[in-house]
Amino acid sequence: MHTLRQILLRLPIRFGTRSARRQRSAHVRHAQFASFLEQSGYRPSNIDRYQRSLQRWRLGKVALLVAAVTFVAWVAIESAQALTLF
């Protein structure tokens, strides 16, 4: 059960909700730090690019998961067909 729980906690869907929750509250808690960075000439990164990279990362994880499940299903079907021949 522990292994299954760890796998479910690492799904990209749950990660997306946690990071979105963090982003919503970040601008309120760190307002002084953000103003300090702005005054010192810090150039913020493009958040849209960051969101796109997170989305690609999640899509890659889902694609890898689907490929792994498909491979396991294919091996199971082929093994069952081979066993029926003998």
Can you walk me through this structure?
The protein is mainly alpha-helical. The protein folds into two domains: 1-44, no CATH class; 46-86. It has helices at residues 2-9, 12-29, 31-39, 47-85. The longest helix has 39 residues, at 47-85. The radius of gyration is 22 Å and the shape is elongated.
Q: Briefly note the structural class of the backbone.
A: mainly alpha
> Major beta sheet, specifics?
none
Mean pLDDT: 79
Helix content: over 70%
Low-pLDDT runs of 5+ residues are: none
Instruction: Tell me the number of helical segments per DSSP (H or I, 4 or more residues long).
Output: 4
Based on CA atoms alone, the radius of gyration comes out at 22 Å
Write down the secondary-structure element order: HHHH
* Tally of strands: 0
Shape label: elongated
Q: What's the structural domain tally?
A: 2
* β-strand amount: under 5%
Note the gap between the termini: 36 Å
Helix and strand arrangement:
Blueprint (H helix, E strand, L loop, with lengths): L1 H8 L2 H18 L1 H9 L7 H39 L1
Features:
single chain; 86 residues; mainly alpha; 0% strand; elongated
The gist of it:
With 86 residues, this protein is an all-alpha fold. Helices cover 86% and strands 0% of the residues.
